[in-house]
Amino acid sequence: MSNELLTRNFYQLFDMPVAYEIDMDHLQQHYRNLAQSVHPDKFASAGDQERRISMQQTSWINKAFQTLKDPIERAVYLLQLKGVDVRLENETTMDAAFLMQQMELREALEGVHTQTDPLAFLDMELAKVKSAMQGLSREFSAAYQADAVDEAKECLRKMQFMQKARKEIDTLMAKIEDELF
Amino acid sequence: MALLQISEPGQSAAPHQHRLAVGIDLGTTNSLVATVRSGEASTLPDMQGNHSTPSVVRYSKDRVCVGNAAAMHAITDPKNTIVSVKRFMGRGVADLHVLGKKLPYDFVDSDAAVPRIRTVRGEVSATEISAEILRYLKARAVNVLGGDLTGAVITVPAYFDDAQRQATKDAARLAGINVLRLLNEPTAAAVAYGLDTGKEGVIAVYDLGGGTFDISILRLNKGVFEVLATGGDSALGGDDFDHKIAEWILQQAGVAADTSELDASTVRLLMQQARAAKEALAVAEQVEIKISNDSLSWQGSLSRSQMNELLDAMIKQTILACRRTLRDADVAIEDISEVVMVGGSTRVLRVREKVGEFFAREPLVSIDPDKVVAVGAALQADVLAGNRPGEDMLLLDIIPLSLGLETMGGLVEKIIQRNTPIPVAKAQDFTTYKDGQTAMAIHVVQGERDLVSDCRSLARFELRGFPPHVAGAARIRVTFQIDADGLLVVSAREQNSGVEASVDVKPSYGLSDSEVETMLRDSMTHAQDDMQLRALREQQVEGERVLAALDAALAVDADLLSEKEREAIDAARASLVETNVGNDAEAIKAAIKMLEASCDEFVARRMNNSIKQAMRGHSIDEYARHNEE
Q: Could you give the C-alpha distances from B494 to B24, B209, B441, B449, B491, in angstroms and in order?
């Protein structure tokens, strides 16, 4: 068992073309297959070194799987493959309409307590955020395909906004559930 | 450098040789051991034919006994008979604040960060007590199987944090067991269910045990058990149901008290009756309860609907956890193909009803909820021991709670998010905030909240001796490695100089070792909180002592008091009773003073009385000595 596996990029690891759109079933299938061959459970009675390598490899595969499965982490990773490190940049330029939408969403969330059924309201907002995320994903994919790095970055920033909104909804839901209880 | 944590060396036996491996369900209320023989997994009975062993340990002067033999003494010898020890696993002194008052044990009032219980056989920690249960189960397995064990898979609640997992692994080591893997209980149940039925799809495992609650969502596909999300509460279970019912009984009996004010054996009796009532109501619509001992006497009936009302709030809490976990898994209720019920507390009909309501389907109760976890663990142990070459069964588990570091302002920076598949390694770079800084304190925490103070503190260590830089120029890479047992190792390295430091996040049972002790104290809780808490506990103990002494005196000499005097004492007593359960040490101190003042005259009269009595049959010499004391 060599550590050659650790030098492959995440797409090579799962035998997939480098693209934003991915076949989720293919990813999951390959993840399970890879895990079958390297997981520590398969080396429970092997020597120290083999078990150490097994843990490293499985950690790597898990990280790869987590990255490609998540729409934002996948986008960040793709830009990294192009040599763009998105996390280190703090540009806030964003189109005005999008920012306005975000503000409206935040205001709606703040007024959640005035809703007759706050949980149903949040479920609805969550669905909206999810669908907006899907739209942005498609935009990102197109931009990436066309090698329009700036456009792709702008898209990613918006996706990060949406993810933050999603987290806020989650937190609010948990809070309201606690109150109801 | 302990970047990689490696389990006990596997034993290399000759091929084709069947290796003895067991699965152990170390439960809050009951524990079981199971193994695979001729391809069939089953639990192993003791000599009396009991498969399930009460998780009870009794310490007596000459020996330690476990199981039914220990449980028989739960009422007569409550201080030396430890039940539900799992609730203390990996817990610090601070946690006793929540748990301690319900419990009859003598907690050692010491500097130790790990709570220890005083017994006639000396002081013991939760890890040592659990080790006794594991040792007992191991002996049974060795006896039944007729050979030494290669190792064991031990199950833990999915929602156990790192400290609780480590404590469990340490208990196994103390018991001389080679741990093949710590396995999450719902995952074990899913394995037993999946291999039994051969079904595929997304399932929910609802696991309500004696002291813990887990909900796990798993995808079953061609022998692979992939955990998608897990949630729960590591301090909610059937024990809490019993407490609720016990409190109701006290109310009905007109005892304006909670269980913390009763003597230990009455509490145990009450809890046993409450539990018996709960179990009876799984079949009957109504149950008769009769309690009578020296301090409590009550008879009455409890109906199922009355009990449901008592339990609904707690059941609702579990349903909320289900809701959140589904959201985490990004799975809709319609996507769930089966809901598997695990744990003895799922026998409560109301639980089944509410779970069925939430998932909009009849939960599966056909598998034995008590045995399924042990059986699943045995199947996994068989695979890990190498008895099933070519078997494609594989468990892909996740970490239940996010792991992170403390950053400026007491905020948490999450390094590994909850529900990440394990094993996993993640690194993040941090930097210095002062010019010339050459050291950095690393504080590892676990939990979902943003503030360090709201999360569980796992460990602190320091990275020292890296070259000074201007603020923000140093690059400290902190790496979190979680192994397949869900255990964490953290290491830090200054990238420019290569200075390294690491720590196994490991609360330990090694209490004789004062170094470990100090490290643990630093890592588990803030020292100041500890001190405040200790002061409070001391006052509470003193309050309890004063109350007990007064009650004993009143029981004998109440006739020495006028009605008015008695009223004054009762009022002061009531005030102390109330204050003593609060968390204000100063107020307790004041209430004790007040009660003592109200008793001055009473105490004097009693002393006179006893002097008179003593003088009747004793010499003046003895009286003089008595008086000096």
A: 42, 45, 13, 28, 10
Residues of B in contact with A35 (CB under 8 A): 224, 394, 396
Give pTM, 2 decimals: 0.78
Minimal Cα–Cα distance from B508 to chain A, Å? 24
User: Residue A58: its chain B contacts at CB < 8 A?
Assistant: 423, 484
**CATH class of residue range A89-180:** mainly alpha
B142 burial (CB, 10 Å; 0-12 / 13-18 / 19+) is middle
Tokens of residue A139, six digits:
């935009």
Buried b (16+ CB within 10 A) or exposed e, B6-27: ebeebeeeeeeeebbbbbbbbb
CB-CB under 8 Å, A56 with B425: yes
Asked if CATH classification 1.10.150.20 holds for the domain at A4-69, the reply, yes or no, is no
Task: Provide DSSP, B539-554.
Answer: HHHHHHHHHHHHHHHH
Distance, in Å, from the CA atom of A23 to the CA atom of A34, rounded to the nearest integer, reads 17
B12 closest CB neighbour out of A36, A45, A55: A45
- Name residues whose C-beta falls within 8 Å of residue B367's C-beta, 6 or more positions apart in sequence: B189, B192, B193, B196, B340
- Encode pLDDT of B214-260 as tens digits: 999 999 988 899 999 999 988 899 999 999 999 999 889 887 666 66
ipTM here: 0.88
Domain boundaries, chain A: 4-69, 89-180
The structure tokens 């109504």 sit at: B286
- Alpha helix positions (H), B287-406: 304-329, 349-359, 372-384
Output DSSP code: residue A111. Answer: G
